[in-house]
Amino acid sequence: MANKNVSVWTSIPFWRRSAAWVTGFSTILLIWLTFDTIGQISMGTDADLKKGITKRVPAPTVINYHIDYKMSQKRGHEVPVIGKKEPFFGKEWSPKEAKELLHLGKLTVQAKNCMNCHTLLGNGAYYAPDLTKAWLDPAWQKGGPMQGMTGKNTKEEAMAEFLQHPSKYPTHARMMPNLGITPKEAKGVVAFLKHMSAIDTNGFPRNFLKTVDQFKAGGTNAH
Amino acid sequence: MIQEFTDVVPSFFGMLNQGPLTLTIFLHTIIILPMFWIYKQEKARLNQEK
Questions:
Q1: Measured between alpha carbons, how far is A140 from A154 in angstroms, rounded to an integer?
Q2: Between β-strands A77-85 and A65-72, what pairing exists: parallel, antiparallel or unpaired?
């Protein structure tokens, strides 16, 4: 029995069984991963937000809260921090209103093909800046250039004004064209961007600066 | 090699993916190990046939 000269490597049943095992295991693994991912990316609810439960993708009503982006020593990168309530376009949006506004924003972003130039969550074209954390860009904050340029007093109004008349405001060597976005659609897009900035992206984009001082010092903002 | 779990939503794969290559090493191990068993079984069968 021992030391007989048999070759397992040239045995067809060996390769057939190995292939069946690897293929079968990978199939089960992929199905498992699919369900694992569904749990990871499912949207939270308004109740989660009120209770302070952190979900990777928060509920649409996150537009009623202040959103910050802070370094987490534990996780080793910046994470979105959902803070106190703040008015969005001068009011608090109910879960139904917020969902509808966000939906309008999503449809507008798709219809106007923002991804033809921009990237959203890292997907899209590399002609214009990444919009994942655009809501947190210091350029739109108080003291940043965009509120002065558009003559608006809040971040959301400045963004909505810019989106309706982008070719009026010199922001970049490559200027954004006028896409015929209506005032209502602009609100939706701003809500969409604010919600996207609250998504936990494991620190993407890296080194996103948040203060006006850092911005004035010539830092880049997630280009 | 395996570090403290820091992800937002707890998950088995998230836990394995905390350190460098931990998920890769784990998956390769559980895929390759049963192949030794298949190899031994086939070898025994071929020896018996001979």
A1: 8
A2: antiparallel
Handedness of CA A134, A139, A143, A148 (dihedral sign): negative
Amino acid, single-letter form, for residue B34: P
Q: Is the pLDDT of residue B15 over 90?
A: no
A194: closest CA among A73, A52, A64?
Answer: A64
> Which of B12, B30, B43 is nearest residue A36 as measured by Cβ atoms?
B12
pLDDT band at B4 (very low <50, low <70, confident <90, very high): low
This prediction has a pTM of 0.81
Can you tell me the distance from the alpha carbon of B23 to that of A166, in angstroms, rounded to the nearest whole number? Answer: 45
Nearest to B31 among A7, A22, A39 (CB): A22
Please list every residue in chain B whose beta carbon sits closer than 8 Å to the beta carbon of residue A25: 30-31
Tokens at residue A26, please?
């990978």
Amino acid at A87: P
Query: Which of residues A204 and A112 earns the better pLDDT score?
Result: A112
Q: What counts of helices (H) and strands (E) characterise chain A?
A: 7, 4
Strands A119-120 and A77-85: unpaired
d(CA B16, CA B37): 25
Q: Are A208 and A196 in contact (CB under 8 A)?
A: no
Residue A212 token pair: 């006006």
Q: Which residue in A39, A35, A90 sits closest to A63, CA to CA?
A: A90
The one-letter amino acid code at A21 reads: W
| Spatial distance between the Cα atoms of A210 and A117, rounded to a whole number of angstroms | 23
Task: Identify the residue with better confidence: A215 or A121.
Answer: A121
**Token pair 């020896």 in the structure block, residue:** B47
Which residues of chain B make contact with A29, given a CB cutoff of 8 A?
27
